[in-house]
Write a structure and sequence with these properties.
Helices cover 64% and strands 0% of the residues. It comes from Streptomyces marokkonensis.
C-alpha cells in the first residue's frame, strides 16, 4: 500500500507503546496483517513498514485504526490512532468502543442505526471478533456509574436589543409547535408515554422474532430506532426519565443485535450488543447489563468460541451480584454451562447446570423478576440441559430434557421449539433411532422454511451433516425427499 511522504518528527508515542507491548517491528506488522484479513484486507506490511511509521510516516486508509486495535488487544485498554501518534481515521472497529460518556454512546449507536437503516450491505458482512469481547466486558465490570444522564432544555434566545418582544402565540401556532414536538425535533421533551411506547415496541418485535425469525422485522426495528429512539435520546429529560429512556434504548438495541445474530450478521450483532451494554450502564441497570453479556455469550457459543462464552457468563455473574433474583441467577449459570458444553468440559458443565437448577428451584411465586428474565422457566432450563447434553454426546439425557422442554414450551416460541426439536432429533440419531430422528428433523426443516432465520436453517443443516454416515439408509432417503422442496 502507498504511504504518505515521511515526516521529520519521529513517532515517540508509537515507539513507547511498541516497547510496552513487547512487540518487535516484524511482530507488529504481522499482527496488523492478520487483523486486516479479518476484514478482508490484504495489507502485506513488514518490519520496514513499521520502521517508516516510527520515523513519522503516516499509514493510509483504515490502517491507523487497525494498529490501534492491535495495541488495544495486547494491552487490554482502549487506544485510538491519535494515542499512537497517528492520524485519525474512520475506525474499522466502529461500534466496539465502550463509550466514555452517555453522549458519546448516543453518537456511536446512532451512527450504527443510521448506517444499518440505510441498507448498507457491507455493514452486515463485518466479521465477528472474539478479541473484541474483552475490553467492553471489562469496562462494564469495572467502570464507574455515570453521574448524570439528564439533558437540559436548549438555552432561550434573547431578542436583539431594540427588537420588540414576540407577540403571544395564537392557537394555530401552538398546534404547529405541538406537531413539531411530535416529530421530536431539537429540544423535544421526553415523556413517560414515550418510554412506554418504546417498551411496547420492544414487546412487539420480540414476539415477531420468536415466532418468525429475526429477518422478518429487523429492518423495521432499526428504522424505528433511527427515527424515533435517537431523537428522544437527543431530546431533553430529567435524571429519572433519562435513566428509563437509556434502559429502553438498551433493550431495543440488544434486540437489534439479537435479530442481526439470527440472520448471521455476526459482526454487526456484536456491535449492537456492545452498545446495548453501554446504554445499560447509562441506565444504571446492572442486571440488564449482565443479561446483555449473556446474550453475547450465547452468540459466542453458537460461533464455537466456548472459552469466551464462559468468560462472558462469569463476568455477568460477577456484575449482577448474589442478590439477583433466582431466575436471573439460573439464566447466568445456564449460559456458563453452554460454554463448558461446547468445550467438552463435562464436570464444569454439569456443575453449572446444577447451580442453574438450584437457583430456579429457589424461585417463589410473587418474586420480583425483570421482564427479560421471565421467560427463563422450566421449559428454558430443560432446553439448556438438552443442548449441553447434546454437545457432550450424552444423548439419552439430551433426549429426555429436549422432550420435557417441548412439552412445556408455549407455541409462541416457535424458533426455540424448532431448535429443541433438532436437538431431540440429534439425540435420537445418537441413540441409533434413525427413523424417529429423521421424522423430527423433517418437521423442523418444514418450520425453518417458514421462518427468516439463518440459525434455524443452520440447526437443520447441522443435523443433515450428522446424517452423512447413514446417507444410503431408507429413512434418510425419505427425509431428503420430504425436504427437497425446502432447499
Amino acid at each position: 500500500m502507498t504511504e504518505r511522504p515521511a515526516q521529520r518528527t519521529p513517532n515517540r508515542q508509537l515507539a513507547a507503546l511498541i516497547a510496552e507491548a513487547g512487540f518487535s517491528n516484524a511482530g507488529l506488522a504481522r499482527r496488523v496483517d492478520q487483523l486486516g484479513l479479518e476484514h478482508g484486507l490484504d495489507l502485506r506490511y513488514d518490519k520496514t513498514s513499521v520502521t517508516r511509521w516510527l520515523r513519522g510516516q503516516q499509514p493510509r486508509g483504515t490502517t491507523p485504526a487497525l494498529i490501534a486495535e492491535v495495541f488495544t488487544r495486547r494491552l487490554g485498554r482502549r487506544l485510538t490512532a491519535q494515542d499512537l501518534g497517528l492520524d485519525a481515521c474512520a475506525p474499522v472497529y466502529a461500534g466496539l468502543e465502550f463509550a466514555a460518556t452517555p453522549e458519546e454512546a448516543v453518537d456511536i449507536v446512532g451512527g450504527l442505526w443510521r448506517k444499518d437503516s440505510g441498507s448498507h450491505a457491507e455493514l452486515r458482512k463485518i466479521a465477528f471478533t472474539s478479541a473484541g469481547l474483552v475490553v467492553p466486558s471489562r469496562d462494564w465490570l469495572i467502570g464507574r456509574p455515570d453521574d448524570k444522564v439528564a439533558r437540559a432544555d436548549p438555552p432561550v434566545r434573547v431578542p436583539a436589543q431594540g427588537r420588540p418582544p414576540a407577540r403571544p402565540a395564537v392557537p394555530s401556532e401552538l398546534a404547529a409547535r405541538r406537531r413539531g414536538a411530535a416529530e421530536r425535533g431539537p429540544g423535544y421533551r421526553v415523556t413517560g408515554g414515550d418510554i412506554a411506547a418504546l417498551r411496547s415496541v420492544g414487546e412487539l418485535f420480540r414476539t415477531l422474532d420468536d415466532a418468525y425469525g429475526g429477518g422478518h422485522a429487523r429492518q423495521a426495528l432499526v428504522r424505528y430506532l433511527e427515527h424515533e429512539c435517537e431523537p428522544m435520546l437527543r431530546g431533553t429529560y430529567g435524571e429519572q426519565t433519562g435513566r428509563r429512556l437509556f434502559a429502553a434504548a438498551a433493550d431495543l438495541t440488544r434486540l437489534a443485535g439479537w435479530t442481526s445474530y439470527d440472520i448471521a450478521a455476526h459482526g454487526l450483532a456484536q456491535r449492537y450488543f456492545v452498545q446495548a451494554l453501554r446504554l445499560a450502564q447509562a441506565a444504571g441497570d446492572r442486571p440488564y447489563g449482565a443479561y446483555v453479556l449473556v446474550t453475547m455469550s450465547r452468540q459466542a457459543v453458537y460461533l464455537g468460541h466456548g472459552r469466551e462464552a464462559v468468560q462472558l457468563a462469569r463476568v455477568a455473574q460477577q456484575g449482577a451480584g448474589g442478590s439477583a433474583p433466582p431466575a436471573v441467577q439460573a439464566l447466568l449459570h445456564a449460559a456458563e454451562a453452554r460454554g463448558h458444553g461446547v468445550l467438552g468440559e463435562v464436570r464444569a458443565c454439569t456443575a453449572a447446570l446444577v447451580r442453574a437448577e438450584r437457583a430456579l428451584e429457589g424461585a417463589r411465586h410473587g418474586d420480583e423478576v425483570p421482564y427479560w428474565a421471565r421467560s427463563f422457566d422450566e421449559a428454558q432450563l430443560a432446553d439448556e440441559f438438552g443442548h449441553c447434553h447434546r454437545d457432550l454426546q450424552q444423548f439419552r439425557a439430551a433426549a429426555q430434557h429436549a422432550e420435557r422442554s417441548l412439552q412445556l414450551r408455549a407455541p409462541g416460541y416457535a424458533r426455540s421449539r424448532l431448535f429443541c426439536r433438532v436437538v431431540l432429533a440429534t439425540a435420537r440419531l445418537g441413540l441409533g433411532e434413525l427413523d424417529q430422528a429423521c421424522q423430527l428433523a423433517a418437521e423442523a426443516a418444514a418450520q425453518a422454511a417458514e421462518m427468516r432465520s439463518v440459525r434455524a436453517v443452520e440447526y437443520v443443516r447441522d443435523f443433515e451433516r450428522r446424517l452423512e454416515p447413514y446417507r444410503d439408509a431408507a429413512p434418510v432417503r425419505t427425509y431428503r425427499d420430504r425436504t427437497a422442496t425446502y432447499a
